[in-house]
Amino acid sequence: MENLTYSELVEITGGSSTTYSWGKAVGEFIKGFLDAF
Length: 37
Prior knowledge:
Layout: H1 2-13, H2 17-35
């Protein structure tokens, strides 16, 4: 669900896409890390 929200925000903001991309990458990393346990 959050991934969709991030994608939408990236498309809407455009200029801040880099920041949102990093936020998404960090979120995915944390999610994967937590799922490992």
